[in-house]
Design a protein that fits this description.
GO terms for molecular function: glutathione binding; glutathione transferase activity. It holds the Pfam family GST_C_3. It comes from Chlamydomonas reinhardtii (Chlamydomonas smithii). InterPro entries: Glutathione-S-Trfase_C-like, Glutathione-S-Trfase_C_sf, Glutathione_S-Trfase, Glutathione_S-Trfase_N, GST_C, Thioredoxin-like_sf. The chain has about 200 residues and is of the alpha+beta class. Helix content is about 55%, strand content about 10%. The protein contains 8 helices and 4 strands. Helix 1 (about 10-20) runs parallel beside helix 2 (about 65-75) and helix 5 packs parallel to helix 8 (about 185-200).
Length: about 200
């Protein structure tokens, strides 16, 4: 299985997940040059992802793009779902992370109106459970948690203090060794870049 990625892409999220389930030895991570060579725009890569975006996955004849779809496929492939209900809940959280939650915070025009409702509800849910889908860590935590961990790095002006359970959840995730080595590391890099740009 080949994962086409770049340290600055959402491929880091997938790397976090495959490490969590102990399958990183089965996934070959191919880091693409997005600046000088622009490999992601090459003709050969567009046969993997016709949109020329990273990350993308190749597993035999299967070619996938979009990080959420890739993680759900990996979870399915390696038996992480015990029932259709578990699978459906993971799909639910994937859509939530990439649409409802992402739009409420990363799209400035929606933030003031939508973020208090979305994050207030998420905070209440996390007050009752340590992880998104119950007491155990699952792919849903990677799907949602990665976006949360990127907020302070990409949007340092966004105040998360009204959501203490969300903040505690983010801290729990960032302290997981595989998260620390991938998504949390990228978030720290981006935060440093953002701070330097603001001072320049």
């Amino acid at each position: 299985m080949k994962l086409y990625s770049n340290p600055a892409s959402r491929g880091r999220i997938i790397e976090w997940y495959v490490r969590e389930i102990g399958k990183d030895s089965e996934v070959e991570v191919i880091n693409m040059d997005m600046k000088e060579k622009r490999e992601h725009k090459s003709d050969w890569f567009k046969k993997v992802n016709p949109f020329g975006k990273l990350p993308a996955l190749e597993d035999g004849d299967l070619k996938l793009f979009e990080s959420g779809a890739i993680m759900l496929y990996i979870a399915e492939k390696y038996g992480q779902f015990n029932s259709p209900a578990e699978r459906a809940r993971a799909q639910q959280w994937a859509l939530f992370a990439n649409s409802t939650m992402a739009n409420s915070v990363f799209v400035e025009q929606f933030r003031e109106r939508s973020m208090p409702d979305v994050f207030g509800t998420l905070d209440a849910l996390l007050a009752a459970t340590p992880y998104i889908d119950g007491p155990a860590f699952t792919v849903s935590d990677v799907l949602v948690g990665a976006y949360l961990l990127y907020i302070p790095a990409f949007l340092p002006q966004v105040d998360l203090s009204p959501y203490p359970h969300v903040q505690a959840y983010m801290k729990r995730l960032a302290e997981r060794p595989h998260c620390a080595a991938t998504v949390a590391a990228r978030a720290a890099e981006k935060k440093t870049e953002t701070t330097a740009a603001q001072k320049a």
